[in-house]
User: What shape does this take?
Amino acid sequence: IPSVSSIVPESCLLIVVGLLVGGLIKGVGEKPPILKSDIFFLFLLPPIILDAGYFLPLRPFTENLGTILIFAVVGTLWNAFFLGGLMYAVCQLGGPGLNHIGLLANLLFGSIISAVDPVAVLAVFEEIHINELLHILVFGESLLNDAVTVVLYHLFEEFASFEQVTILDIILGFLSFFVVSLGGVLVGVIYGVIAAFTSRFTSHIRVIEPLFVFLYSYMAYLSAELFHLSGIMALIAAGVVMRPYVEANISHKSHTTIKYFLKMWSSVSETLIFIFLGVSTVAGHHYWNWTFVISTLFFCLIARVLGVLVLTWFINKFRIVKLTPKDQFIIAYGGLRGAIAFSLGYLLDYHHFDMRDMFLTAIITVIFFTVFVQGMTIRPLVDLLAVKKKQETKRSINEEIHTQFLDHLLTGIEDICGHYGHHHWKDKLNRFNKKYVKKCLIAGERSKEPQLIAFYHKMEMKQAIELVESGGIGKIPSAVSTVSIQNINPQTLPLERVLPALSKDKEEEIRKILRTNLQKTRQRLRSYNRHTLVADPYEEAWNQMLLRRQKARQLEQKMNNYLTVPAHRVDSPTMSRARIGSDPLAYEPKEDSENLPIITIDPASPQSPESAELGSEEPKGCSGLPPSPEEEEEGLVMRVKEPSSPGTDDVFTPGNSDSPSTQRMLRCLSDPGPRPEPEEGEPFIPKGQ
Amino acid sequence: TGGVPRVPAPVTSVLSLAVTSEQIEHLHRRFKQLSQDQLTIRKENFDSIPDLEFNPIRGKIVHAFFDKRNLRQESDGLADEINFEDFLTIMSYFRPIEMNMDEEQLDRFRKEKLKFLFHMYDSDHDGKITLQEYRNVVEELLSGNPHLEKESARSIADGAMMEAASICVGQMGPDQVYEGITFEDFLKMWQGIDIETKMHVRFLNVDTIAHCY
Assistant: This one.
């Protein structure tokens, strides 16, 4: 018996849950809440779009941009006008209940319902794993048609209140499309560049790096919406523009944070949207008119199919990889409507559009039909038609080399032919990017790092993490091959290994440390001292004193609560949180520890692979690690620029020159950043992509 | 100048589909530009293309035009000069895919393109891509960044080679030596990338199957 979740997509189940909840609330006698449009547009929609835009696979998107744009713009326009026109005809013929609905109202309705919804598409397509091309076509279309929807919606809404519509109005409306879409993109690009520029300077305050990404993106969205430009396009543009630069600047941990926060928020949003849809269905005032609703549904489907067929015929003339009829079917079938249509309908002013309830009913019916019927049946249809599925290929360094080689080769051939094609312009853009833009927006040495190197480092780190996860350096999991450098280059001396050579004792020590530290879930601060390689009794005494002082302080604070003048300046909650969150241990390594590798481990979560970071292995003979705030590593080994004397309560006393820098140090040391420069022979670079 | 030159039989028979006559004209014009109205092109003629300067693998690309293996001649080594037929032959490696190809044709199509690439990697023509040649490739790819150390390029190439060995041979004992990437191994490495759709120059669209004689 197949489980429910393999037949019914999650979005359907959520709507059903919403229906039940709404029914329950109504049954109790309360009024169930309706999905208000401003909550939807301001809070529920942006996380989903940002998640989509930030992680947009750029290569297939730009390769198919022409196709996507044609589907998004021309397809949506066709849907809107076709549907609007036909519904007007239906209304005229439909009897007394419908006769009063004018052409403009119908066109407005058509424009609301014609747009493919990104939330619904994401929800359904995520589960069926079709090949990348189809996914990006349908999904890209759902994102880019927002501009068209916004323009048409506002246009028809305004026109409906005009006495008559002149040609000038229509022309202005046409022009406003360009303003809305390009303006939205421009706003997004501006904010993206600002965000990238900001991230260049965040090497000292790594904990709030993710905030900039979210903040600037949201501001891009709000700014665009403020001027009635396309907020979705602004958000996508901001995410796409800022991503490569931000990821080069921020630390690995911030990257993880951004990824997980975005996924979390977008999941929550998606769930809430579908549940609310269900609840709103129960709660709303409905006006069911058989003719209107059924014909809407019917014409929606027909419009979509016709649109896709005609457009594909046209597009295939220009495409190298043509779209087969199977592809066309999936594209047509994947045109799902969702909550955006509902919210736009809800926004309609009741006074101007008294048939709003009927519109809403029809919209909800179409949404339900597409999500339930099409959403449920698309998976078996994909299997039935044997549509190509997504290939789970792991990106290998070889592929990266080959892809880059091919790019350069094709660019070269285009230059030789004298043909300024796709590759030529892409190459020009890359060169411009490398020469000017990267220098501005990426901090330090990383601005000059070629993509191949960055990719290689990322892969090396992943492999290192996998190796550590699988139980230490000794055991090699069967998945990893036993091929080593000896196999390909027999003359190489062991010194030239990609991994630096470790003596047996060092390996044993490393293994022991990793095992003990990774298997403990939570380390008390003090116990770290006992297990580290380099405990300093002087520093340990200082830390004990620190903790004692902290406790005394807290006690004193409680007593001081009622005094008018507090004895010491009260610590702000953020600062104390930052302090507790980061590891306040700071001590200098012993001078003769130069032969020992320094391992830094994040205590919080041994399960997450990203928490393990192998520090640098200093080659023999190097003088001890220089204490510098730039060399940020955390956990066991930390360096403080100015070690304070045990006597002063420096962490808490205001006015002491040590305390702000120590505070900052403690805060920033919780989050190591990208190493400023790759040192000699250093294979592991624990930083973001 | 005469009209469009004859496309010789070997081009059409082996590749089984020809480029259209307009494209041949266009390429012929370009050829004459490059050769400065001579009948043949030498390596130095490629210097006159300004945009090619920025290309990191410029040397390999130019070399590929003169590689006798690509020109379908029986012999090996490098030609000193190529005429228009040879130019067309090289260009035909970049034809885009067609809808009506069957499995076998598709396979041959793909193999040809990969063979061209293989020849570019394998500079000493011994049929294998050795570690040194691969290192050379990576170094050239990274040559656009002047302040990069050789060490990084080498370690990347080594890592890539190891990965290739593990894909092609699997588990290897410490005494076995992996000589180099043969063409079969090369095919395996490219399995994930559909080269038939990627390796083409757009304007060589075969709209009509016009054989021009």
About this structure: The radius of gyration of chain A is 30 Å. Residues 167-199 of chain A form the longest helix (33 residues).
